[in-house]
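Note to self: user wants both folds in one dump. Writing first protein now.
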Amino acid sequence: MVETRRDGMPGIVILVLGIILFIINILVFITSIIMAEDLWPLIPLTVIAGIIIVGSMIGLFMVDPNEGKVFQLFGAYRGTARQPGLRWTNPFYSKNGISLRVRNFETGRIKVNDRRGNPIEIAAVVVWRVVDTYEAAFEVDDFENYVHIQSEAAVRNLATAYAYDATDDELTLTANTAEVSQQLNTEIQERLEKAGVEVQEARISHLAYAPEIAAAMLRRQQAYAVVDARKTIVEGAVGMVQDALDMLSDRQIMSLEDEHRSTLVSNLLVVLTSENSVQPVVNTAVGPGQS
């Protein structure tokens, strides 16, 4: 079953009619006291009129903007009013309000193992609203608590499906935030569909390694960064050495044999890839007895 709209009648009309009838009833009663001696025939009529007026006024209710009033009659669902303002419906209906406003909350920091078995801490922000008041009121026991628990379960399941980070082309929690957020949104929506809830946004708000392995993982990330930096330096140095050799050959500055070429290449690579300043040794080619 889904939500049925039943906004009722404009309440201001019933309110005005009730006030007019109440005033008329009072005037009739007062007039009868003044004009007649025996009032017993008028008392039941006055009481009945008063009960009808009060019963009509009980049917009045107020609907706030972005709110739904769920009607029940002897336990049976009779509809939902969404029209804002003062409304009127059957006085025997019970009326329970459900907010239709957009709401958000942040899940607690959940400690879970990622796809590679590394313990991580993860939390997410979920933006949601009720779109079907019947399902929110009757399909689940407490729809707000249901939203919180199911969202945390979806976050936990997401964390186990992806690695925190990786060196290959697989999707990770840190590098593919858009794809991961979309997957999280879809999974939470599937879980909350039966509660009449629409998930408007779900995004990871906290992501970190667990404290017990955070230091080790930081060293690993630093090692990866050093390796990547070294690789870039070596690739650049090799290119510079190749350019230097080609330039010497093209301009015929010197002719190098294989032995001298390898020595020159080795020296240039040492100079270009060294982290510290290199002090060159100048060979003057002056032998013994020469000046």
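First done. Writing the second protein, which came from a different request thread.
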Amino acid sequence: MAIRKEPLSRELVAEGVRYLVRSRRTTPSLSSRVEVHTRGILFDLDGVLVDSTPAVARCWSRWAEQYGFNTEEVVRQAHGRPSLVTLRELMPNGDYEEENRKMEEWEIADTDGVVPLPGVLAVLQALPPEQWAIVTSCTRPLAEVRIRVAGLPWPKQLVTAADVQRFKPDPDPYLRGAELLGLKPRDCVVVEDAPAGIRAGRAAGSPVLALRTTEVDELLKAAGATWIVTDLSKASLRPIRAGYPLDLSLHT
């Protein structure tokens, strides 16, 4: 996978200075452009393609309050991982299968505010269907609801929690996603927002584009992100044909 950095122009430097003034992030950087050549893209769903954070927070806060847990800690622990894994950790001696069934019902019913994140529709509509997949820790029914409610193009390939034995941060989900595209993981870019997902992508052998939609730069970098951008409005694709390498331009 070849990467080519272009020199900063005066305009880009000026934009970088404006970004430093605007940003409240702890690790801002000057704006620059990076060209990434790949053959496939594997997208996480929540926090990458759809903004489901308010719905997720409402459901997990409701559950945490019901059982006396710290709501903020539970919401953070649950993000980017299958609900069943989180529930097993929080209540190892409880009926976590029943709690997982209840949580899935709550999340499927709560679609208020589930919308596509900036830049998502433009990127997905530009991609040939056989060159991208969604790889999520959601169950398939929940993933399908969020894809439909957000109005995303329907993925030809969808990997959910039921399709793998081990979950993020293990590499299995992204290994499966690459396999479905008929590609090697190193020939795919993983797009993630959560440290667990970033680690999964890197463990699979893929470079990872991390989005600042959920976590701060320090956590994204510590997890192994290859590049970091604000969201997919900072990514664009050159005109492409099915089966040809993808040219992904990142404004970091």
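Dump finished. Worth passing along: The first strand starts at residue 3 and ends at 5.
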